[in-house]
Amino acid sequence: MEFVVMIVDTPDQARIIESVFKDLDNDRMHFRALAVGQAAVGWQFKGTRPTTVILAYSELKTDQEKKWEREVVNNLGYRNDHPTRQTKWVSLL
Questions:
Q1: Domains, the chain, ranges and CATH?
Q2: N or C: which end of the chain has fewer CB within 10 A?
Q3: How far apart are CA 32 and CA 93, in angstroms?
Q4: The model's pTM
């Protein structure tokens, strides 16, 4: 099972992405989108942790956002060397 999670800037972006990808969900793949600061209740799907995490959010500015990143994203083991970390994100939405 491939479980792909994309983290974006806003809840609206997350909803749009989930609505686009929900038709692709099947027995082999599941897509989920989360927004910065959102509770990470979606980090498991049928007992599987994400196999791919795509960081598609802008640079975090507030202390609260940075704390969220340390507590949620960094606990996945990526820290600053995540393969999808971009120094500059161009929004597609």
A1: 2-81 (3.40.50)
A2: C
A3: 16
A4: 0.74
